[in-house]
Structures are given as structure tokens and as C-alpha cells.
Design goal:
The structure is a homodimer. By secondary structure, chain A is of the alpha+beta class. Chain A is built from 18 helices and 28 strands. The first copy, chain A, has a seven-stranded mixed sheet, with helices on both faces. In chain A, strands 7-15-14-13-8 form a five-stranded mixed sheet, sandwiched between helices. In chain A, strands 16-24-25-28 form a four-stranded mixed sheet, with helices on both faces. In chain A, α14 packs across α15 (568-576) and α16 packs across α17. Chain A is globular and about 80 Å long.
């Protein structure tokens, strides 16, 4: 490591940024291949129905149609988190997105026309849309072969004397918090291209964000071995967790490509994206919190009901993270947690940025404000008294290393300072919320590692081949920075390669805000190994011991005699372009020093933890219920801001998504049908809707993190809705326990207070 | 290494074969990109002329034209072997392929139309087309700034007492051999796509076969550093040496892409391919050979005149290899060699398979037959008496390791056995020729190395990322075999990746039949390193010392107790999918133990040498001069045939190309103009023209070669034309010293003998 960071800590534009804003990025949508066929999927029109007849003969006869398949025509295997669905449904359909047939044709229009020619007769079945109703005996069974609609998922945790704590508490608050479906609304819809070669090996071009798990899961769904699947990842237009599940689109593309004997591309239109893209799950959180008179938290007791939808997906595993919040956001000695996760005939969810933590933080932080009110304490002071500190071990056994939660809370005080007062008829409120999240990976799989290969060519061009996946989060930029800093070479000499599973070393994928930390450490280790080789070459050229040499600014020089130096690329050439020469390639694998949670959900799942606090300042017009967010102050313990501009950008994006969750976004699903299927109906906040954002990066310099960094990708989105709800309460005195807090709801709650 | 080879030595279909014959291969021609612009080049109509006026304004105004450039509009730097040309010529043109302007447009048709609108006025200059005339004082100067038309290239060598040897010889033969232009006639024409990104980094999709040298040379021509050039190599439809030079098409694509602000594709049509694809050079070889009465060679004296054409290319360096033949094909104690390489106003050549060795072998082996006749010795016996033996060091200092030249000569005896006798009016002849070529790389650059990275994923899929370049020669297949054999895993589990300079480690490129040997050794070393890691993981699982383990057929097992075993992919997963796990990546670089030739052209340039002998059996119709080749027997010391079917295929291809050179192919260039510019005029042999081919693979098991192998890519083509000429002489008694030996020439020489 150089003594003074040259690259780390400077704000570097994202590498993919200029291409994206100038329209140059070649997304998977843009990929054309010779002989490319286009696939379309026929979906169920009913949330629950038996398939009585399915006849594809008319469709198959349409000129230009290359293949029509149904579940009866293909060999497929159950897939998904609980292996409870087939890509092409047989027997019955369980939600309105269910896939019953697919067509490959010369053009998308022909494929679309062919869908119309598929004759399907359904017998509708009684359906169930409420998870609590679904869990009751006698409810219509979503999966006939199961005894009930309860899934096999249940997250139970208990630590300390919860009942005792509630008995002796000075204050107890409780509430039921209802969170609804939202969708990531990625600007780039889902796409899959599948191609079988003549050796029966499958190449997939995919929008996945977990290519190696995808390789495994897709192979399983197709009944082939994983070594026969190669995954290519062109740039994606957003993912936000969408790409964590293997989805029917991927399996169907592969199934279609076999009889079509062509590469087959399936590309969602916007409507289909709203219907079939994984969403954030619908859930009900029932939480009680107990505190002592001085504000010390004594216990929390939580029960979460998750609407699983028709099939189990990663979305139903979010209680895993909700528990971490309930047990780990602030010091709390006694915790009880349980879940009900039930099948319904609703669409099923997936993973989405923040992954349960938005939902649980909404509940937990709503109750922090209520406790402060109940105990007559300042809301920030209550939080400071309960703040996690370095060295803490929480009820689950998470071991806290670096932690600047207190500083984050301090940094969001006086959030409204300098703002013009609210207009007449408007009430101002300030709300606070903090956040606790993994920041050093999350060992959900047996390996939480990432590999890296670094090479240096004769021109001093450094290639980092990383296992990591870029989904717009800026990982390529920060990984290049880590390599440049480690090697002491100019940043522009470093290229990042990460789009082909046949090339890149293994990585779990993008989730749990892990890429900078895990892939960053792998890149750093590989670069250190390369540096040692390079310095060895320079030592030979300069005729000095390698130990005496340092690298910085593209030079390798004698530490005590900096004028004795050689350009690093010259050293590379000198070591290579001679008899008995060598080229420069090094590799590393980093797996963090963590463990998987045991069956009691205990263990230390991450090598570092991130903390943040937010303040939301907003004005509410009492007559109309209109909310105008004026300012969000977001303070984040990021360990170290490797690329401060990008870190700030991640937080901006998170706050944007969080404000949508809090105020405007809702995927309206009624009787299993999705009613908001365009950007005319689904209200993503526009640039003009955004308030002033103030980001404060707090550096706690994590010991395990690369150059001190911790994960950050999700922390901006997590506390927003809680802080908004607390601010609305502060402004107009009404506590909202369901999201989004729309003007209509506020207006209704205020009863036209000034009307 | 496993005890018994499982993969090596079996005939495995080429991996690219099925895709190619079924039309699935995606050549560079097939690549479409969003916003792709199409480039066309305007060439000089005169072999030598001053550019008086060059006005592109009309072309630039054509709708759909994106950019028009001339040498005046761009910053370019001289490139080529002698750095004596600009991609876009300024001042004057020196041959008819000279590029004077280029257009990028929305479509190829618009670009073509725009070329017509470029106004160029030329003042024709006296031209020179004969290299010997060009070398004389007073000849028109091709390059005005030079004192004469002699290039700076001269290959001079002298060893032993040549004049003394000629004085005491029992027989001396001499002759002048005239070789003409031929073209590789690749079915896939040359293509280049250039794209500058917003960081001003250049990505080139290219038909190059030396991507890292191309990266260097293109950067130099553009005046940028090599680290800003990334080279991508889609499959090519043949190369045969064409891709060794950087060509104007590549530079112009890059120059056009800047003002077009788009990716620009230039794709040669067939006519343009005939005009602008590098050819085999035109030359005159004057050779004398002296022998003792017992047939022992005493000396050779050779002078080669090369028609350099307008610019120096790799084609003018072929005397470097011609010398190796003159000094190294058979034992010859005294050798003198010199060259005259002169600029002319002809098109310039490039490198082409065999690279000088066809030409010099034609001369040398023609004289072997003449010596046999003069001394009354059997032609094969004369050759046997002079055959190179293992342990020889030749006059240049080449050190011969494995060598089965004698066996190869033995193997081609009785070549005509079993053939039906010639028809009435036809005369049968049998001709022999042998061949000596580098077979273990050729250190022409300071590094003759290649890098390899091998990784194994959780599914047991092995990726070999090799520096090597596949140009249809079958290298991917043989490299996969080497890795599979080294690891003891099934061949189908091994993938080869080799198409991106940002990913693959360094390699000189495809030339000198080096890939199997050099890249094969690199792959073997990397695989050995991976195997050690994998065996270490298995040792942990099986709880035995790693030394006790072996790998074969996908299993890792205890040598003495083969039933104690673990599947290799399970071992990989066990080593990875745990806390503190590792993934499997290994790398290696192999640079052969050789040296560059010194200024006197001495040294040991290759780590192994290949030998071959051929017999050609043909019938000549005396009345018409028509030649029908009946059989070619080709015996090759390949060290070891790693993939016998592919080795045979390489030889088949070589013989096809050699027969074309001998009998039918000639790029007719008259007064600097190319008159054969389609497959109607340029006579490549068709499948139905091919004789029976008998290949005998002789295995000398080279100690340094991977699994004993030596290079083979060029050896099939080298002796053919000499053997054909010797067979024609044998049949009808006429010695042809110029190629091709067409029916017309034979007819003329026979004077209508039976007419």
C-alpha cells in the first residue's frame, strides 16, 4: 500500500456513466445475433384455475413460427427457492403471471400473433389472496399436494427473557405495520437469450446478478449439469435484487431454443415487466417494544406475516433480515421473533434492495419515536442512548467491529436548519430513523467469497478479471480504484472484466451490499500478489533488493532514493521481453471470516456492519394531505468512502427509492390481478419530485474492509420510509403504519382538518 | 500426468468444425452493433502517381455519410515492418492498392456511392515492377526520400569453405527458380471494426492472428499507447499468415471511427480481398549445390531476390526462413546466402503459411533430384544419406533434438504402389521432397512465450484462458485435450477462451507452427498447477497425503487403493463451499529455451524442429500437358500426434495449398495491376481436383514438447511444389523452375510431343 492514497478517497465518475447518458451502452436488449429467434410467453388470465385444454396446433401452423411449447412438450424440473414451480405450468395455474405456453418465431410480432392462436380452456378455482386467511384450515389450497398453504419457511428466534422485560418495562409500544408490493421498476426490462451449441452446451445472455448461482439453478431446472451452462452478462438497466432469483423467462428461453434450433431472445415489454418482474413482498409486521424509563430498550417481540404468493422465492426469506433489524437495530437485550409465511394466489415476490430491512426498520423506528413520546425523551437522544457501539455482540451473535452509529445520529441533527419556513396551511415535520445492515458480506451460502485475477500487459494495461457483477452500482469503478491504489498505477490503466462465467472466477453475486467489501478485498489481494511480482522484476532491473522498492504514480522506486526508479510498464516489459521472461498474472480468492447462521439463527454472518441515520424534513398541506419533502439528511458509516461521489450517488438512489416506497409507489394487486402496469399508474418519483439531499459520509475505517471500506449499496433506501412516517407524525400528529403515505391517505386521516 | 494417455492420441473432431459446416459460426462479418457505421476505402488506380488534388467535399455532402477522411485530415504515424507507409497515403501513391481516402456511412452502399464522389487528380509517374531493375541506379524511386530502391533488409550468411567445397565437388548443380505471387484466398475476407469509447480507448474487432503485436502496432500507427487498444477476435474464415501484418484496413477503421463517432466496420468484398490481402511474395532464388561422389552434400550457395513491392512487410523477411532451409534441409557443411530486396511499384506481400520455406524447398529439393541424376544415385537414397539426425547442430547453430527425418523418407517409398497404371498417352512420374521447419516456436521476438490461466468451477467446468489464437488450425481443440489429459478430466468439461486481449495472457500470436508447442506447454503447466491445488483439496477430503493421489477419468483416487476416490468436481466444491474455502485458478507462462538469431543469423531459434517427406505421384498427358495428381504421400515427424485426425487434417489442408501453388494458383500482376481478382480467374483447387492423400504420422516424442508434440501447421504445404516439379520431371523429363506448372506451360515445354 502506498503511504498516501492517490486514488482511494477521490471522487471518480462511474465508468459506465458516460456511455449510459449518451446512449452508447449496449444493453442485452440491443444484442442481435444471426438467426436470432424471438420468444413470447403466454400467461394465465386467472389467479387460480385448472388447465382443461391447451392446444397449440393453430399457433404452430402460423408462418414464421419456429417452436411452440407447453409443459407437456418439454423436460423441465422444479426450480425456485423451494423448488415448487415449473417454468411452464402444468395442471393448474396459481397466479396471473403463470406461464402456460411459449412461442419462438422469426419476429416478436409473429410470436405475439402466435400467442393469440393458442387455445386454452380454464376451469376457475376458488382463490385466496390474504396470507392470514390462506393459513387458516379450509382455505383453498394453492398447491394441492400440500396439507396447508403454510410454506416450509419459518424464522423463529428467541433471546433473553422477553416476557419478563415486557413485564417490568416503563413503556411498551406496539403496532401492526402493513407493507405492500412495490416493484424495482428497472428501466431496462428483463431479457434472456439462450443458445444451445452443437455439443449441447447452453450459453445464456442474462440480466442475472448472481451468474454462478444462476448457472447452478438453471442447469438444475433443465436437468443438465452446471458445467454445460455459460452465462454472459451484458450491461443491465437496473436490477436492485431482481436478478437474484432464477425466473421462468430464463428457463423458458432455454427450453424454446432447443426445438427452435436457434438462439432465442425473450424480452419483456414494460407491461410484462410490471406483471412478471420480482417485487418487494407484501407483509404484516406486528411488533412490540419495551423500554426502561431512561429510554433503554428492554425487549422486542415481533411476528411477521408474509404473503408468499404462488411460489416461494427469495422474497419470502426476507424475515431473515427483518430479524437482524429487530435484534440488531439499537442495543436490545431480549428479542422474540416468529413468522407466518403462507402461499396465496397473488404474484410472488423476489429480492429487492434492502431486502426486508426497509419493512422491519419502518416498524422498529416508528416505535422508537413512540417510545420517545411515551417517555418524554428527545427522539434523537433516545436513539443515542441505545446506539450500537464497536465491540458489541448482539442477540444473534453478530460481532460489531467498526461502528459509528452515534456519529451518524449526531450528523443528522439540525436537519431543518436554514430551510424557509413552511407556507401558510402547511405543517413542517422532522423525522429520524437509523439503520443497521450487513456491510462485509453475508454468509447465506456456504461460500461468501469472490475471486479475482489481475494481469499486466507489456503496455502497463492492468486487467482485473473479477467474479463480481456490475449492475449499475459502480462496482467496476471502485474495483479499478482498489487495484490502481494497490499497485500505485494511474486509474485509467486499469480495465475491469466481469461478464462471462467461463472467464471470471467464482462469486456469490450482487446481494447484501457485499461487492465493494468482498470483491474489493479479492481485487486487493490479487493486486498485491501482482505487485510483488512486478516489484521483483523492477528489483532485477534496478539491481536493488525488492524490499527496498515502493510503487506509486506508475513508478517503482527505491524508498530512500526515489530518483532511482523505473516506470512500472517498463519493468513489465523488461521482465517479459527476454529469454526466460515472464508475464504478469496473479490471482486471489477472498472469503470473509464469517459463519452461516445456525438453526437458531445465531452466528456472525458478516465481516462488518454498516450503520446510518437519516433525517427527513417535510411539509404537509393540511387541507389536501399533500406532502412535500424538503430535505433528507443521510449520514452513513461507510467504513471508508473509496469513491465519495459514487457513495453519495448510491445514497441518492437509495433515498429516491425509499421516498417512493414511503410516499408514492404501490403495485396495486387486487384479487390477484395487477392493476398498475405502466408508468402512468405506478408512481416512481421523478427528478422534479426529489428534495434536497444532504449526504454525510462518516468514516470508521473498518479493519477488515478494503482500505477500510464497508458495504453501502442498500443503506440509503432502508431508513427513509420510517423517517418519513416519523416526520409526518411530527408535522400533523398522525401515525401512519402502512405505506405508501399518499396524499389521499393523509387527507383521509386528517379528515379535511382545515377544510 | 496420468500413466496412460486417455485423451492425447485420440482423434477428436475440431471444436469449431460442426458450427462451421452448419453455418452457425459467427464470423466477424456477422457482427452487428447498434449505431454501426460502414467504411469503404478509395484506392489508387495507378501503380505510381503523384496526388495532385484530392477533394472530398462532394462525398461529405451525400446524405448518410458520417465521415470522409484523407491523409490530410488525420493524425497518423508510419507503420509496417520498416515503418515506411501511412494508412492513408499523402503526396503520392506507390502501388494500385494504395489507400487515398475513406468514407464512413450509414450503409455500405452509401459509403460506396460516396467513394465515387471523391475527386482525385493524379499525375502518373514512371514506375518499376522488376526488383532487379528497381535495384539498378537510375530506376524510378518508389520512395523519393531514399537513395535507391534497395530496402534496408539484407540477409547475409556464410559458414564453412563454400568456394573450396564447390572446387572439389563431384557434382555441382545450379538453377534459377522463379516464384510468383499467390494469395491465401481465405474464404472469410478481411474485416475490421473499430470503436472509440468516451474515455478515448479503442476496441478493435479484428481478423488479426497476432493480437498483442497488433495492439502494439496499431497503437503506434495511431500515436496512442498500447494500453488504450483492446483487441477482440471473433472466429475468422482462414488466415494462413494474412493476419500477421497490421494492415491499412485496421488503421483506417480506427481513423474513421473517430470523426464518425460510431463503431465503424470495414469489410472487404472478394475483389478487394484479392487486391489488398497480403500475398506470398514474388522472388527469384539462385541456388548452387555441390555434392561428393557418394552423394554427400558439400555446400550450397544461394542468392534470393525479393520483389518487395511498395512497402516493406513481413513478406520481405521470408529469406530469414529460406536461409534455414538452405542451411538446414539435409546436412550441408558449407553455406553462403545473400539477398537483394528491392522496392517496386507492385503490391506488397505479407506472410503466408510456410513463409519462405516453400520457395527455398522448391529450389533445394529440385537440386537434390538433379544431383541424384548427375551422380547416378537413387533419389531417396541420396536424401537418406544426407538426412538430418538427432543431435545435429546445423550451420546456423540450430540444435536438433527429436528427429525422424530418415523414417519420414522411408515412409514415402513405394508411393505409387497399387495405383492403376496411367492411361494411354499419359506418363507417370513420382517426385520426392523433404522438409525442415521450426517445430518448437521461433524466437523472432524477444519473447516467444505464451500465457495460460486455468480455472475450475464448482461444476467441474474447466476454463483454459490461453494467449493463443484460433484461426481454424484446431488449436482450441488440442489445447483442451492437453488440459484434459493433464488434469485427468473428460475433454467435454474443458472450455477454451481466447478472444480478448483484456482477458487472455500474452502470446506472440499464430506463426511459425508454434501454437501446439508453446501454448500447449503453457496450458500443460497451468493445468499441472491447478491439479496440485485440486489434489490438495481432495487430500483433505479423503484424509490422505496429496502425494498418494492420482487423477484420471474425472476421479481423484489413492494410487494404491483406487476405490478410495472422489469426483474431481466434488473435491472442488468441498474445497470451496465452506468457511475459509478456496476456488481453483492457476496460471503459467511458457517461454521456450531458445535464443534469437544474432546479427550473423546464428543461434538456436526453436526448441524443436519438424521434419517431413512427401511423395507425389502424378500423370501427365503429353498431348495436352494436363497434369493429374494421383496420390500424395506425406510423412511427418510430428513428435507426437496429440489429435491424429486434426494433424492429418492440417496436412491435408497444407497439401491442398501446396498443390495450388505447384499447379494452378497465380495472382497475375502485370505492370503493377492485379488481373486475377475473382475465383473465376484465380484457380484454387476444388475438392474434385484433389488426389488421394496418404498421411503417415511419425512420432519421435520430443522431450520439450507437450506430451512429446512438435509444431505441424505449416509442414504439409512446404514440400509439395518441389515434389510435384520432381514428379513432372520424372514423368516427362522436363525440369520446371517456375511455378505454377500449368498445363499451358507443360504443353509449351513438350512442344506437342505427341501431337
Amino acid at each position: 500500500m502506498t503511504e498516501r492514497a492517490r486514488v482511494i478517497g477521490t471522487s471518480v465518475p462511474k465508468r459506465d456513466g458516460a456511455d449510459k447518458v449518451t446512449g452508447r451502452t449496449r444493453f442485452l436488449h440491443d444484442l442481435e445475433l444471426p438467426r436470432l429467434a424471438h420468444g413470447k410467453i403466454l400467461r394465465a388470465p386467472h389467479p387460480h384455475a385448472r388447465i382443461v385444454r391447451l392446444d397449440t396446433r393453430r399457433a404452430a401452423r402460423l408462418p414464421g413460427v419456429l417452436a411452440v411449447i407447453t409443459g407437456a412438450d418439454v423436460v423441465q424440473h422444479p426450480f425456485g427457492f423451494a423448488k415448487d414451480q415449473l417454468a411452464l405450468k402444468t395442471g393448474k395455474v396459481r397466479c396471473v403471471r403463470d406461464e402456460v405456453a411459449a412461442v419462438a418465431a422469426e419476429t416478436p410480432a409473429i410470436a405475439e400473433a402466435a400467442l393469440e392462436l393458442i387455445d386454452v380452456e380454464y376451469a376457475e378455482l376458488p382463490a385466496v389472496f390474504d396470507p392470514e386467511a390462506a393459513a387458516r384450515p379450509g382455505a383453498p389450497l394453492v398447491h394441492d399436494e400440500r396439507a396447508s398453504n403454510l410454506t416450509d419457511l419459518r424464522y423463529q428466534f428467541s433471546h433473553g427473557d422477553v416476557d419478563g422485560a415486557f413485564g417490568e418495562a416503563a413503556a411498551v409500544v406496539e403496532g401492526e405495520y402493513r407493507l405492500d408490493f412495490v416493484t424495482p421498476a428497472c428501466l431496462g426490462t428483463m431479457v434472456a437469450i439462450a443458445e444451445w451449441d452443437l455439443r449441447d452446451q447452453l450459453t445464456m445472455w442474462s440480466t442475472t446478478q448472481v451468474p454462478f448461482l444462476y448457472q447452478r439453478d438453471l442447469a438444475h431446472a433443465l436437468g443438465i449439469t452446471g458445467d454445460r451452462v455459460r452465462v454472459l452478462q451484458p450491461p443491465v438497466g437496473g436490477n436492485f435484487g431482481r436478478g437474484l432469483d432464477l425466473c421462468p423467462i430464463d428457463v423458458i428461453a432455454a427450453l424454446l431454443a432447443r426445438p427452435a434450433r436457434r438462439p432465442v431472445k425473450i424480452e419483456f415489454e414494460r407491461l410484462e415487466e410490471f406483471v412478471a418482474c420480482p417485487t418487494r413482498e407484501r407483509c404484516i409486521i406486528r411488533l412490540r417494544t419495551a423500554a426502561a424509563a431512561d429510554g433503554r430498550l428492554l425487549a422486542r417481540d415481533c411476528h411477521v406475516v408474509v404473503d408468499n404468493g404462488a411460489y416461494v422465492s427469495w422474497g419470502s426469506t426476507t424475515p431473515y433480515v427483518m430479524l437482524s433489524t429487530v435484534a440488531g437495530l439499537y442495543r436490545v437485550p431480549a428479542v422474540r421473533f416468529d413468522t407466518t409465511i403462507a402461499y396465496t394466489n397473488n404474484p410472488y415476490s423476489g429480492s429487492m434492495r434492502g431486502y426486508g430491512n426497509l419493512e422491519s426498520t419502518f416498524a422498529v423506528e416508528s416505535q422508537m419515536d413512540e417510545l420517545a413520546a411515551r417517555l418524554g425523551l428527545d427522539r434523537l437522544e433516545l436513539r443515542r442512548r441505545n446506539a450500537t457501539k464497536p465491540g458489541d455482540a448482539n442477540p444473534q451473535g453478530f460481532v460489531i467491529g467498526s461502528c459509528a452509529m452515534g456519529e451518524c445520529l449526531d450528523a443528522v441533527g439540525a436537519a431543518a436548519a436554514g430551510l424557509t419556513p413552511p407556507a401558510p396551511g402547511w405543517k413542517r415535520g422532522v423525522g429520524y430513523a437509523a439503520m443497521f445492515h450487513v456491510g462485509g458480506g453475508a454468509r447465506i451460502y456456504k461460500s461468501d467469497g469472490c475471486g479475482a485475477i489481475v494481469k499486466c500487459d507489456d503496455f502497463g494495461k492492468i486487467s482485473l478479471i473479477t467474479g463480481a457483477t456490475e449492475i449499475g452500482q459502480g462496482s467496476e469503478t471502485v474495483l479499478a480504484m482498489i487495484v490502481a491504489e494497490t499497485l500505485g498505477v494511474p486509474l485509467e490503466r486499469v480495465e475491469v472484466v466481469n461478464s462471462d462465467t467461463a472467464v471470471k472466477p467464482w462469486d456469490v453475486g450482487v446481494h447484501a451490499s457485499r461487492t465493494t467489501f468482498i470483491a474489493g478485498n479479492a481485487a486487493r489481494l490479487a493486486a498485491e500478489s501482482l505487485r510483488a511480482k512486478l516489484v521483483g522484476m523492477a528489483a532485477e532491473e534496478l539491481d536493488v533488493p525488492a524490499e527496498s522498492l515502493r510503487m506509486a504514480d506508475g513508478w517503482i522506486f527505491v524508498a530512500d532514493e526515489p530518483q532511482r526508479r523505473i516506470a512500472y510498464d517498463r519493468a513489465a516489459r523488461a521482465g517479459h521481453l527476454r529469454e526466460g521472461g515472464r508475464t504478469l498474472v496473479a490471482e486471489a480468492f477472498y472469503d470473509p471470516p464469517t459463519g452461516m447462521l445456525d438453526k437458531d439463527l445465531r452466528g456472525n454472518v458478516s465481516a462488518a456492519y454498516g450503520f446510518a441515520a437519516q433525517a427527513v424534513v417535510l411539509d404537509v398541506e393540511e387541507a389536501t394531505g399533500v406532502i412535500r419533502v424538503r430535505r433528507v439528511v443521510s449520514a452513513h458509516d461507510v467504513g471508508r468512502a473509496l469513491n465519495p461521489g459514487a457513495a453519495e450517488g448510491q445514497i441518492h438512489g437509495g433515498v429516491h427509492m425509499g421516498l417512493g416506497y414511503a410516499l408514492s409507489e404501490r403495485l396495486v394487486v387486487e384479487e390477484g390481478r395487477i392493476l398498475t402496469a405502466s408508468f402512468m399508474d405506478y408512481a416512481v418519483l421523478k427528478a422534479e419530485d426529489m428534495p434536497e439531499l444532504v449526504v454525510r459520509l462518516v468514516e470508521s475505517m473498518d479493519e477488515e474492509g478494503p482500505f477500510g471500506a464497508k458495504g453501502l449499496g442498500e443503506s440509503g433506501v432502508i431508513p427513509v420510509s420510517a423517517a418519513v412516517a416519523n416526520a409526518v407524525k411530527d408535522a400533523v400528529g398522525v401515525r401512519f403504519t402502512a405505506l405508501p403515505i399518499t396524499s389521499e391517505r393523509v387527507h383521509a386521516a386528517l379528515g379535511g382538518r382545515r377544510a
